[in-house]
Amino acid sequence: MTNFLNILLLQTKPVSTASERYLLVYMIMVLIIITSLVIVFFVVFQKRKNKLLLDRIKAQQAFEEEITKVQTETQEQTLKNIGWELHDNIGQLLSFASMQLSILKMEVTDDVKEKFGETSNALKESLLEVRSLSKSLNNEVILNIGFEKSISNELARLKKMKFASAELITKGEKVNFDNRKHEIIIFRILQEFLSNSVKYSEAKNLNILLEYQPNALIITASDDGKGFDVNTIEKGSGLINMKSRAALINATIDIISKPKEGVQLILKYPI
């Protein structure tokens, strides 16, 4: 009887081992499938998550760009209105005052005429300044006379005000802008830089270099004023406006300055 049981056990053992192997293979396959599904689910989840994040970032960028565009358009319209007011109202008042002064000048004695002459000249200079400023604020005038001429006029106006020299230098073969609105934006950036030079720099000389390259326009604007530490200076609305405007036309801006070494603005605009 004992021998019979031993023989039976020996016969059934291989069957049991084969079943275990099949079961083990089955479990491994199930484990692989589950792991694969988890990996696929995780990858899909990450892609969806990344897509949502990218969509959110793009939406935020588009929103900020739209806000910047609206602000820029509002500023341009405001400048245009101010330009009209200066030209039509203030200009007319100054013209009237100059005319009245000329009439009065004919009715006074010779020794008083000299003082009238100085005042009359001051009024004429003021009238020219107002008209020049009104032109620089009007987009239509800038587009009509051209980008480089507008910069030259602005520098000439500032030179009369307080600077010993204000020069525009051009290098390379001139390339026309594909989008003429970009001319206005770049001009406004330079105007902002020049305005800051007038208000804060205590500079005596201004220089603007336009360098036309095959794929870009490199603009370098500089003054020889007191400068500042770019790492510690508080970023005011002027710098923020310049960078916001540059971003609208895919341009980049770098500000280089040190105390007592003036300020340099480098703008790279892709052509």
Provide a short characterization of the protein structure.
Helix content is 69%, strand content 14%. It has 271 residues and is of the alpha+beta class. It has a five-stranded mixed β-sheet, with helices on one face.
Mind explaining what this structure looks like?
Helix 1 (about 1-105) packs antiparallel against helix 2 and helix 5 runs antiparallel to helix 6 (about 235-250). This protein has six helices and five strands; from the N terminus they run H-H-H-H-E-H-E-E-H-E-E. The mean pLDDT is about 75. It has a five-stranded mixed beta sheet, covered by helices on one side. It is elongated, with a radius of gyration of 37 Å. Helix content is about 70%, strand content about 15%. It is α+β, with helices and mostly antiparallel strands and about 270 residues long. Strand 2 and strand 3 (about 215-225) form a beta hairpin.
Would you spell out the secondary-structure blueprint of this structure?
Layout: H1 2-105, H2 110-136, H3 139-145, H4 147-161, E1 165-171, H5 180-201, E2 205-212, E3 216-223, H6 237-248, E4 252-257, E5 263-270
Parallel strand pairs: 1-2
Antiparallel strand pairs: 2-3, 3-5, 4-5
Helix pairs in contact: 1-2, 1-6, 2-4, 4-5, 5-6
Features:
5 strands; 271 residues; alpha+beta; 6 helices; 5-stranded mixed beta sheet; single chain; elongated
